[in-house]
User: What shape does this take?
Amino acid sequence: MKMKSDVDPEMIGESRLMTVPGTDPALLGTAVMDGPAFVEVRSYQTFRITYTVGKLGLDDTGAIRVALRLISDAGSLQTTDPTAANYVSVRSSGDGQRILKYDRNGGQRPWNETLTIYQRGGYLKPGETVEIILGDTSQGSPGLLMSTFYEGARVFRVLADVQATGNFIPLPDTRLEFTVGAGPLHRYLAVLPTRRRPGETFLLGLKAEDLWGNPTAQGPTRFTVESSMPVQGLPEVIDFAPENGALRIEGLSVAQEGLLTLTLTSDEGHVVEAGPLQLRAGPAHYWGDLHGQTGETVGTNSIEHYFDFARNKSFLDVTSHQANDFQIKPVFWDKLNRLTAEVNEPGVFTVLPGYEWSGNTAVGGDHNVFYRDEGASIYRCSHALVSETDDLDTDAHTLTDLYAKLHAEPVDTVMYAHVGGRYANIFFDHDPTLEAAVEVHSAWGSFEWVLTDGFPIRRRVGVVANSDGHKGRPGASYPGASFFGAYGGLTCFLMEENTRESVFEAIRRRHTYGTSGPRLAIDITATLPQGGTLHHRNPMAQPDCTTDEVDTCTMGDIVRSWGDTAHVSVAIEAPAGIESIELRSATDVVHLWRGYGTKDLGRRLRLMWSGAEYRGRGRNTRWQGRVQVSGGRINDFAAVNRLNPEQPLHQVGSNSAIFNTITTGNRMGCDMWLTGETPTLAVTTNHGDLALDPAAMTLDPIVLEAGGLARRLVAQRLPDAPLPRSAAFATEVAIAAKGDTPVWLCVNLEDGNQAWTSPIYLFRD
Assistant: This one.
């Protein structure tokens, strides 16, 4: 597959006006741009767009418009302060005045961001010009701030309303663009799978990232490699100088069982860890991000770039492209199906065709649709941004309509309910034979409620996590500085082999767990002393499904138990310290594991804030405040899970820290190592205050509930040293006499990340 980053304009679903002033391209005028062709992320730049008036002239009260894509965290244009960043100025060779209006959401998707230059007090004649300077530095402005992420083609789209009708027409044959590239090296990352069988081949992924998570070629080096176990095919030295910032080392294997970790040390002294990788019998772990979209719809970069990134830069095993259905043109649907067939590599890289059914929450909400094979139909919720209307009769306006059409489709299908802008309405309708999982984490945040709300109504679904990224970076979707508040998630599939058939079976059997980004190995097993009946499908929907008599079961299994208790054992290997593990029965925590006791507590105090405003699109919660220490000082400080480097979260002087950050269901905070005889803390936030005396604190955290949706501030003491990365425990769990007993895990890591397993659904009725 030839990888390209720019998007073919003919693939973009958008609303096109039915009337134009005429067919002659010269009627509307022309535009050219002067500026750099390549810029680095988060740099300041200047661009000059010169519009030359066409044959019709530009009438008094007419206008020209510069439109940009919605998905961007570049600086917002402004026209009032010539000394500040992102200042825009305009001058003209003709009569009258130019009135500027900037609107972050003034245009039609995907060209939402608009700068409109209105002509007032006179008209412009053919051949006269209007010069627009974006990032005008002449009076002290540093220029126009670039985005945080790679864009193969950042486009300024110029439109004209030459006859003052409000009808803005894109200038024909005008494409003003530049490339936003990665910045300097910030860190190296090394990636291993979490579980393979002895003798089975696997790969080591190595990547250089800039501050914002973009793969960068600015970090060439040589690594020496140390391994905890003999690895066949692993070089002792790796010369790392890839042009695209990432490298796959394939064909590695380990002959015996054990736990593999790798330590890579660069010539400059960078130390990078990879693993842990478990070598053991049984199902292997394959990691996927099945949810993202690109510039052909509302995102950025091309679908070719998307699949290349998934395989070669985030080292995924499984992926899919999920564009909003109401923006998928027939020509793009055909291209998507051709590409998924082309890039799918059974055993190496599984790619599923599909789309996101994007009905409003009132009629079911967002759902991901995955097909096992190419050639299936797309059943859109509407043709909102699709001008072709010959297939209107295929639309599925409600979730119920979609279920009916998918059942008539000969292609094998599975679905996820997900929480994005239009969150899934799990109470509207549910077909267990199609909808097998819920997405509990994405770049939009963390949403345990989409799972737990279903427990009382016996929805038996698995847990997955994906990025829902719009920047073309599946598997490594950093939020940047935009309205996305979290790092994109990953799903672990427990499978014998990496094929479409195995992925579908893992989804249907709910043999999955999701994380907010890290790859950790999780085992949860329920032993039933009196045995039980395992159902391969949900017997409430498919009572004649295959069954097995068992005395043990694992995540996702649906089992009728013949006794009233289960012996649950848990084991975890993680790439970061494990803060706690919550074993839950439905929404109750029945066992809390910590790898330390009261005697281990040190001078480290952890503050974590989390939660969201509500379930809808504007769920971001701002956490703003200060920590003031009395009777001591902050000896050391570390931000925890701060995802936007531009958001304040740092120590100020010896006795205080400040923060002004965003959460969207996910966790964020800081660790402070305190010194002094009797340090106390006053924590002041926009959601409430805490007074803390660390000497009086025990293992149990102090929690300030702050309303909203699971919005809270948590303070707890921790050991001074890093927490253990391995955990194992066992306990008894009671099984209810009626209804389901969903047994599942929430894992809280020291770095602020989380993981959630699909529940074991035990029942007795």
In short: The helical segments are 303-312, 330-343, 399-408, 449-452, 500-508.
